[in-house]
Design a protein that fits this description.
- The chain is an alpha+beta fold.
- It has 2 domains: 123 residues, 3-Layer(aba) Sandwich (Aminopeptidase); 168 residues, Aminopeptidase (3-Layer(aba) Sandwich), CATH 3.40.630.
- The chain has 10 helices and 15 strands.
- The chain has a 7-stranded mixed β-sheet with strand order 9-10-11-12-13-8-14, sandwiched between helices.
- Helix 5 crosses helix 9.
- The longest helix has 18 residues.
Length: 307
């Protein structure tokens, strides 16, 4: 295994990342935004015999007066070809051994795959269980996607389509979508949740020449009243449902069903193949979990964090 640190050009990284429909945290633009916020980022390109094997983007945090550091590969590496557990083990060992960090260091990975004997991390210590999410393949036709919806979800979608709701695409200038992020911040405070800082979004949206390839925001109105909104971050041929808000009126009209449906349609038009609907927690947020799982997507529980 040959590890090349910070040598791959952005265009090549993006091409590999898009073909794999990989996670937001492994997107070049995600790393560029972190760098702009003062975070150290390391990118590894792994090859064997001249063939691409993996991408791994690490976010580095420094502690104890810069004398120690932790490098985290979140929702990665991105595997560029099928590998056995033994081959993955070689990749992990090579990444850990060659990482260009001085002094004391801790390397952590959170693979984008469930636990299995072929994970390749049998000698690493798991320090945190993995989260669950819903992955939705949006390449089938809209008719096929509609047919796989849960009956109740589909019924609510039909009701929303026949209601007074109107759906609008929100522009990519910060002033046009800021209201939704402000609502998100209020929700976080009320529910004790955490997420990406506001500044990240302002950096991520213009990170590509066409902002429409980095973000999609939709708004639901009733007359002149704004009743719901959703934001999706686009990363290559995949997208992540990042922010959602609804008023009581929007909830009564099932506005999120209609916004998500319109979002899927628009993302398909923009070349997205896979939509990550975000984490599901059937204990703390059972209603949100049911909403996501009823789309017909696949529930995936990742293996966890290993050091």
């Amino acid at each position: 295994m040959n590890i090349h640190w910070d040598t791959l050009a952005q265009a090549e990284w993006d091409a590999h990342h898009a073909r794999a429909a990989a996670a937001l945290q492994q997107d070049w633009a995600y790393g560029a935004c972190m760098k702009a916020m003062g975070v150290t980022v390391l990118r590894a390109y792994v090859e064997q015999g001249g063939a691409p094997v993996a991408l791994a983007q690490f976010i580095v945090r420094r502690f104890v007066g810069q004398l120690a550091s932790m490098a985290l590969c979140s929702v990665g590496p991105v595997w560029l070809q099928p590998l056995s557990g033994a081959e993955k083990k070689q990749v992990y060992q090579a990444l850990k051994r060659s990482m260009p960090l001085p002094n004391l260091r801790l390397v952590a990975v959170t693979p984008q795959e469930p636990w299995s004997p072929e994970l390749g991390l049998s000698r690493w210590r798991r320090v945190m269980t993995g989260h669950s999410t819903v992955m939705l393949d949006i390449t089938p036709s809209m008719d096929t996607l509609r047919a796989q919806l849960d009956k109740r979800w589909r019924h609510r979608l039909g009701g929303a389509e026949n209601s007074a709701l109107t759906i609008h695409k929100v522009g990519t200038n910060a002033g046009q979508y800021r209201w939704l992020l402000d609502a998100e911040m209020q929700q976080r405070e009320q529910r004790g949740l955490h997420g990406l800082p506001l500044h990240f979004f302002d950096l991520y949206v213009p990170s590509r020449q066409q902002p429409a390839q980095t973000m999609l925001t939709l708004r639901a109105d009733v007359g002149r009243d704004r009743v719901a909104g959703m934001m999706f971050l686009i990363h290559g041929q995949a997208a992540t449902y990042q922010v959602g808000w609804t008023s009581d009126a929007g909830r009564d009209l099932h506005a999120h069903n209609l916004i998500l449906w319109k979002g899927i349609e628009t993302l398909r038009e923009r070349g997205v193949r896979v939509l990550d609907l975000g984490g599901v927690n059937t204990i703390r947020s059972a209603g949100i979990a049911r909403f996501k799982m009823s789309t017909g997507g696949r529930v995936v529980t990742y293996a966890g964090t290993f050091i």
